[in-house]
Design a protein that fits this description.
Chain lengths: 234, 190
Amino acid sequence: MHIPDGILPAQVCAAGYAIATPVAWYSLRKINRQPDPTVGIPKAALLTATFFVASSIHIPVPPVSVHLVLNGLLGAILGYYAFPAILIGLFFQAVIIGHGGLTTLGVDAAMMGIPAILAYQVFRLRHPLAKRFNRRFADGMAGFLAGMVGLGLAAVIFMTLIITTLPPGLDAATEKSAIYGLSLAHVPLAVLEGAFTAMLVLFFQRVKPELLEDHWQKKPSKASDLTTEQAERV
Amino acid sequence: MVFNLVTLDRKRFTFIRWLKPEMILILAIIFVLVTAQRSLAHGAVIEYRTTQALEVQAVYDTGEPLANAQVTVYSPENLSDPWLTGTTDPQGRFLFTPDPSISGNWDVQIRQAGHGDIVSIPIGEGNEAIATTSDASDSDSGNALFSSSSNGSTATLNPLQKWIMAGSVVWGLFGTAMFFAARSKQNAHS
């Protein structure tokens, strides 16, 4: 899933940074606009550690093997914290484990981080869902969808990126079939990550429901008032 | 007398009985040789000479080889057009003989489904240079080529070092979590 150095042309790497930077800035601004931006940090730090380790957990899907990504899970539970969390996790993965690379950090962050934010939006469907079904089912279902959408979208972006940037010296047919094979192997992984996200969400729901609370949309008018008040105080 | 008889007998045999078959045999041998040569003219000529080759091996960090992955070799003179292309064997290995007259860094890229790496192998003038670089690539293939950066001769981290570093990162992240959790608790109390 991680694109290493030397696979993508330089323009694409630059474009990756050009996309990831404003998204990171937007996420940090969203975090900073919260009443207390540090509230989410313990959760985000723990899930960054999980994300960092997850890519070393390989799951064989014959004939290939895939690894956990958990970007959908991070999106569902962290909201906008997910993007900086993924960015930090990817940086450490590139430097220490050798997954991905520093030139492709922007591309990888955009590829996994933007689907994570979308997964968060999907996870928020649990509120309308809860009106029709019971709370537990709605949370589980939304968690499942969020985990699946996060990974599925990242896999689609990965496939598109690699296929559209095939270098001319390569046997395109062989490489394409290998890419399709790998992408197909991500279908069971998406289901697995969806199930894992649903399980974790249901666990939090039972043990510590405040972990799942949205701090972002709670009081839209008052939040801005609070930030101006804070700014005045500072 | 006996001796005479034998020689007589022989003479009779050679000149009368064995003359024709012998000639037929000789003719047959000549025919076979001629036709064989004719058919040989249709075949290939194989010569051999010893030469220095480079073996590169690509494995995923799980230890699984990159089997049937595409290999692109770029000579130092032309970094945009491949000098040689091929595929790895089921063990992820690829063997090729670089042109020793072109000295400099030969780039070998091995990729499969968007994964892979480039290794840069310095080839100098003379056989010794080739020998040392092939050693370097050998020691490289023992490790995960995946994690080896652009320079083939740099030592890569062993798994223990890697896991200790990864563990430190996880520990640091846990520490960050604990720090902010404790702080928010303090804030709640005060």
